[in-house]
Fold these 3 entries.
Entry 1:
Amino acid sequence: MIKILKKKEKILEYVLSTIFFPLSILFVLFIRLIRPIFLIRYAYIISTRIGHLGENLEFYLCAKKEKLFVPKKKHLDIFYLNTEVSNKFLVKLLKREILILPRFIMHPVDKINRFFDHFYDTQDIHTIGRYKKYLEITPKPPWLNRDIYHFYENHGPQLKLSDNELNQGYLLLEKIGIKKTDKYVTIYSRDSKYLKIKYPKIDWSHHDFRNIDIDTFIPATKLLIKNGYKVIRIGNIVEKKMSFEDKNFIDYPYTELVSDFMDIFIQAKSNFCISTSSGIDCITSMFRKKVVFPCLCPILDTKSSTSNHLLGYRHLIDKKTGKKLSLKEIIDRKLGFVFYDDKNYENIDLEPVDPLQIEAIVKDMISIERKQFFKDEDFKKEEKKFYDLFNQLPKKHPQEGLYHPKKLLFQISKNFLNQNKWWLN
C-alpha cells in the first residue's frame, strides 16, 4: 500500500511539474532580473527525516533572529519539501514561520537555475546557505544539523503550538491516563523497522550498531515510575513491545493515538526524554526539554552545545585483546567517529548496553530535575578531566564539517563517571 501511494505521489508531481514548467522558467528569469534590488532565495528541506525537517529549520529561524548568514539587502526566502514528508503536523507548524511553496514549482526552479549557472554563474546566491563564494565544509542553515552556534542555549523554541492544539493534545493524553498536571518522561530506543518499512530498497545496516532492545530500559522505567513519573515509549513503527506492563507506562506505538500531531505534542510537553540518539529526539530539544543519552556511541556524536543534554557512553572493545578502550586510547587511535567515517573498524567492537548503567544515569537526571544534583570536589575533578580529554578530540566531522562549538555545555553523568573511573586513565 505504501509503495502504491509513493508511486501515485511521484506521478502526480511529474504531471504538475510538466504543466508548470514554463512558469518555473519565467520565475528563474524573474529572480535573476530583480536580484540587484531584491534577492529571492530558496532551499530544499530534507523532509524525509524528522530530525532534519525539524532541527535544521529550527537553526535557520534562530540564525535569522541573530541576523546570522542573512543578506544585507531586501530578500525573500522560499522553501520546498521532498515528495515524502516524515511528519505533516511539523510542516504545519513550520508554515507559520516560513514560506513553503509546492515542490512541483520549486524543484524545477532549482534545476533550471543550476542549468542557467553553466552560462552565467550566480555563485549559488539564490540558494539559502549554499554560497559557493563563501563555501566551507561546515554547512550553514538550513543545511546545518549541529547546534554549533548555541542556538538552543540562547533562544527559546521557534515553533509554537496554538491554544486549540494544546487543548487537543491534553485531551488525547487523558485517554491514555495522563493528566495535564502529571509529570511524564519519554523513552526512545532505536531499531531498524521504521527505515526498513519506509525505505525498503536502501541498505541501512551501517546504522545497526545504534539499535538497542527496548527491554534494556525496563529498570529505568521502573525507577521513573517509583519517583512519580509516568513513562511514554515514543516512535510510531517499532519492532516489539516493551516486556513490561504498568498503569503508569504507555507503549505509545501500540495505542490508537499514534499520529503526526501526537508524535510532536508528547515530546513538546514532556519533562525530559531518554534516547539512544536519533532524529526523533530533536523534537524534544526543539521545545527546549532535557534529553538523556545514556549509552551514546560514537563519542563525537555527542550533542554538546546545550546544558539540557546529559550523557553516558558505550565502551569500545579491542577485539584482539578483549579489553575496553579508555578515552585516551580512543583519542590516540582516532576512534571518535568510529563506525561513521567510512574506515575499516573490523577490530573494534561495542560493549553490550548495561540496563543498570542506564538506570544510574537516569537517576542523575531525576536529581537535576529536582534541583538536588550536587557536584562534590571529587566529581568536579573527574568532570574537568573528562572535558579536557574530550577537547582533544577533533571538532570536525570528516564529511559534515564542524560538529562541536568552542564551548562545551553538555553535562556528563556523575554516576557514569563514578562507575567508570578507569575510562579517564
Note: Residues 154-424 form one domain.
Entry 2:
Amino acid sequence: MVSNMIKKIALFQASSHFINKSFLLMFPLIFLIGCATQSQTSGSYSADQARKVQTIQTGTVENVKAINISSDRSGLGLISGGVVGGIAGSSIGKGKGRDIAAVIGAVAGSIIGDEIEKKVNTLEGQELTVLLKDGNMIVVAQEISDMDGPIRVGDKVRVITGADGLTRVSVN
C-alpha cells in the first residue's frame, strides 16, 4: 500500500514536471507570433501618419515584379528555439544520454526557431513601376494587400507620398 502511494506521488510529480516544461516550451513560440512584422500594404497607416498632409499623384502601372519584403531578424527565433529544444531534449534519457539529447535539441530548436522567425518576418510584395501623369517614372515596393489583392500592369493608380518620403500605391 505504501509503495502504491509512493508510485502515485512519483507519477504526479513527473506529470507536474512535464506540464511545467510544456508551458516553458509554448511561451517562446507564443512570443514569436507576437513579433510578426507590421503590415506594409497600401491601406496600412502608422499612428504617426494619421492626420498629416500627404501629396497624391496619379499614374499607370507599367511593370510589376514579385518580391519578398524581409525585416531584420532579431535572433529571437534562434534563441527561443534553442531554449525550447534544449528543454525538450533534456527530458529524454538519463545521464550522458540526457545531456546529449539536450544539446541536439538545442541545436535543432535553434535552426527551427530561426526558420520560423524568417517566415514570420517575410512578406509577399510587389515592386511597382508607375508612369506618372507628369511623365516621371517611379518604382515603389510594397506588400500585397489581402483586401485589395495584387496590383496589375495597366492599373490606374494613386501614388500617395508623406512628408517623411513614405510612399504607397493603391488602385484608383
Note: The domain at 39-71+123-172 is CATH 2.40.50.100 (OB fold (Dihydrolipoamide Acetyltransferase, E2P)).
Entry 3:
Amino acid sequence: MKKEFDLMLCDDGVTRSVPIIDGVKVDPSKGKPKEIKKEEKPEKPKISIQDRITNQVYDFVSSIEGVIDDFIISNYKLKYDFYKQLTEAGCKSVHARKMRKIYLESYNELVDVYNKEDDYVQEAWSHLKPKTIQKMMDFYGMILDDIDRIIKNASAQRKPRKKKEVSTTKLLKTFKYQKESPEFKLVSINPEKIIGASELWIFNTRYKTLGVYYAQNTVRGFSVKGCTIQHFDKETSMQKTARKPMEALSGLNKRSLKKSLKDMKTKDQILTGRINAQTILLGAF
C-alpha cells in the first residue's frame, strides 16, 4: 500500500511533509524537545596592550597640556610638580618613553625659535617676546626632566640580572634605607645591586649630603652587615653637604655625580658605612 503524505505545521513550529496513518496526520516532532536557538552575542572588540598604553598616554598628555594652559594664563609664573602628578596618576616608564618624544620635539622647537634658526617656526611664535620664549622653554625643560626621572627611577627598581654567589636575601634581611623621596624626586636602586659593586653613591635627605663609597677591592666589591656597608675604602670614600641639592642631583649617572661632588665648595666629610632610613641609594657601579 502506497504511503500518503500531507503538509502540517508541527509542534516544533516547522511546517513539513508528514505521513498520514489511518486518516490521521502524524507529527514526528511530538515528544521531542523543541530546539532553542541561542542568541549570538556580539563579541566585544579586543583592545591590544599597545592600544591601551597609547590611550593612557593620551590621557597623561591631556593633563599636562592643561597645566601648560594654566602656565600661560598665570603670565608664565606657575610652578608645578609634573613628577608628582604623573606618578600619582599611574604613569610608568613605558608611558614616559612615549611622552618624552612628544615633549622633546616641542622643547627643540622652542630652542629653534629662541636661537632664531628656523624661519618657519619663528613666524609661528613671532607673537611672543624672547623672554617669554625662554620661560616656555624652561617650563618644557621641567616637563622633560620629570619624565626622564620617571624612566630612570623605573630602571633603578629592576632586580640585577647577574646572580650573586652570596645569598643577598640573607645579607639584606635587616638592611634599612629610604626607598623614595618625593621631595627630591628620587627613588633608591634595588639594594641587591650593592653586593659585589665597587662604587656606591648615596644621598642623605635629612642632612642633604651627597656621598660616595669606594670598595677596597674592586674584584670582591662591597658586602653588607646589618645596616653597614662592608669592605669600603675609608681613605677615598667621602661625602659633602649639597647647598643646592636639586642642582647636584640633576644628573644621576656616575659621571654627573662625580662632577657635582667635585664642584661643591663645602668641606669633605668622612663616611662611617652606616645606611639609615634617610639614605637614598642613588647608584651602584
Note: Residues 168-284 form one domain.
